[in-house]
Amino acid sequence: MSTPEKPDEEERPAAGVTERRYGLLELIRSDYEFYCDLHEEPRAVRRRKAPVRFVINTSLRAGVLFRITCAAPRWSHWFWRSLLNALHSSEVVYGARIGPGLHLPHPYGIGIGGQVLIGERVTICQNVTLGSDMGATGQPVVGNHAALLAGAVAVGPIRIGHGAILGANVVLEEDVPDGGLAAPARTRVVKRRINWKNYPVQGRKSEVHP
C-alpha cells in the first residue's frame, strides 16, 4: 500500500490570508479607512479631509500608486512600475497580491516580488524587501495585521504570521508564528568616548567633549 505524498512546502495554502480579488477603488478606500483608524479619527472628520489628504499626504498618494501598479494588466504594468520606481524608488513586480488596508508610513525603497501574498491591514515601512531567495522557489506570505519595520528583508517561501512584527533591519530566514516578533541582534556600544583627533568631524568636537 503506497503512502500519500507529502505536499511541497511552497504548495501549502496560506491559511487565513484571503486570495479574493478586490476592486481598485475598494482597495484604495480600505487603505484610507485603515489610515484613519490608526489615527483614531471620527467618520465625519475622515470624510471631510479625504480629498485634501490624497493630494498632500505622501503615504496615501504612494498607496494609490502601489494599488494601480498591482491592478494594472501586463501590457501597462511596466509604465506604472516605472513611475512608482521614479517617484518612490520602489518596485512591485507583476503578480504581487496585496489585501485591503495597506499602510505605508514612509513609502520609499520598498521591493515586492511577483509571488508575494500580503494579507489585510498590513504596515510596510521604508526599505522593506519581500522576494525570492537565490536557489529557492516561492516568496513570502504575510499574514493579516502584520508590521514590517524599516529595512526588514524576507525572502523565499516563508510565512509571516497574523499580527507578527519584523523589527528594523531584520533578515528573515524562517517562518514567524502568529503574534511573533523577529528582532535583529542587539547593537552594542564598542567605545564609550571617541578621540576626535583620530576621527575629525567638523563642528562636532564640542558636542562630544564638553
Kindly describe this structure:
Helix content is 30%, strand content 15%. The chain has 5 helices and 14 strands. Helix 1 (24-38) runs antiparallel to helix 3 and helix 3 (58-71) runs antiparallel to helix 4 (74-88). The protein is globular, with a radius of gyration of 21 Å.
For the CA atoms, what is the radius of gyration?
Answer: 21 Å
The low-confidence parts are: 1-13
Shape: globular
Number of strand elements: 14
N-to-C terminal Cα separation, in Å? Answer: 81 Å
Largest sheet: 5 strands, parallel
Q: Helix proportion of residues, in percent?
A: 25-40%
Query: Helices and strands: which structural class?
Result: alpha/beta
User: How large is the share of residues in beta strands?
Assistant: 5-15%
Keyword list:
210 residues; alpha/beta; 5-stranded parallel sheet; 5 helices
Task: Produce the secondary structure layout.
Elements: H1 24-38, H2 43-56, H3 58-71, H4 74-88, E1 91-92, E2 97-98, E3 102-103, E4 111-112, E5 117-118, E6 122-124, E7 129-131, E8 141-142, E9 147-148, E10 153-155, E11 159-160, E12 165-166, E13 171-172, E14 181-182, H5 205-208
Helix pairs in contact: 1-3, 3-4
Task: Give a short overview.
By secondary structure, the chain is α/β, with parallel strands linked by helices.
